[in-house]
User: Fold this.
Amino acid sequence: MAWLKSSLALTFLLLSAVTVTCALSDAQVDEWLRSRDSALKPLTLTRRDASGIKPRHLRPYAPVKRDITPPDVGQVSTFNGDPQPSRNGNGGLFSGDDTNHPIDVQNPDNVAGPPTDSGVVPNLKWSFSLSHTRLLKGGWVREQAITDLPPSVDFAAAELRLAPNAYRELHWHRVAEWGYILNGTGRISAIDETGRSFISDVVGPRNGNDPDIYYFPPGVPHSIQALDEGLEILILFTDGNFDRLGTTFMLSDWLARTPLQIVAQNFGLNVSDLQNIPKADPYIVPATVPPPPLGHAGDGAPKSPVGTVPSPYVFSLSKQPRQQAKGGWVKIQDSATNFPVSKQVASALVFVEPNGLRELHWHVKDEWLYIIHGHGRATAFAGGSTSRTFDFQAGDTGVFPNSYGHYIKNLSPTEPLIFLEIFKDERFVDFSATQWLALTPPQVVADLLNISVATVQKFSKDKQVIVA
Assistant:
């Protein structure tokens, strides 16, 4: 009973101290506690940070200041400090460190999107920085497949880096392969189904010029080698589920899975000639002998008795004129106009000037997007009063599904926004919202949008593509 009375007295003392002073710092109590356990620290019942304990899920509160001023026209939220899920009196503050602040800073429209966002639109964005990077002798590779970005049904992608003179081993695919040279110089070689050969150098952007692209039809065996600068490529494959079995076929892997006696008989060799062939595919192979330098692709290359491929697998963007617009320019490549071999992939290289806008439009095929440079913003309209806004940086990929209305805005006042639009189609097709309204009877548009006929008549009858 004496022990219980002492405990009750102590509890009363603690509660009294908290009620009156919101803290307990009593020398006699401290001494009593230490007499029971010398390792105990002085007891403090104030906020944990005042006692020297750093809370895991709490951080100092700072007033949030946004640039959203009435009326809210859907502009980007900017914050004094970390983005917060609060806009126009809706939402509230994060309760602590229960969010990834660097990702929030890059994606303010995920945190506090415009009030026009509505409904549920699946994630349409993936950053290669989130992909696993395979480190190999002679380079690295990282991929984006349908498991990373489920709406990307038509395309899977990879960023491939080859060290100087290293090469991607001989292989072929069940699907078509399209490549954009991000940096460096390289050499590709291939044959078609009749045995006609092809070899060409490819270069990345240099001296202000745009780079090369290439295309291999399904089944075409090929190789890719870096020259003395090394080589970095964005590669697309015309199947989002690219990693499934039966998509890529490596030559060394095939031979390793075939009885050696059969391999020797096939090539007209002795088994002893093949004792050192790889037992597993290396994916990337460091070169033992440097290839001929840039501009000498044909030096020492074998000549096919049936000639060369009549439709080149390489297209030089630097030689294609720009389609100028008021807010930038575009270069379109497809098999219907200028890249005949590229039967399954149509593409556009788009340059949007600072503060410019890729106009409101839609496509009849899924659009696969890759940001080369800059910082952009896009809203995907999925129909049925449903939309979602995304922020994009260099290295991001995205998908706008078939017929989703969208735009892409350059958010920088000083830097251009450069990106690729890719489609699994033989022809590039888009529909302009402005052109559509300009070519519709003006009174119909005026009645629908509740604007004047004079305003409707200001709309451009020509496709703008990019708006300043």
Q: What stands out?
A: The domain at 154-316 is CATH 2.60.120.10 (Jelly Rolls). The longest strand covers residues 222-237.
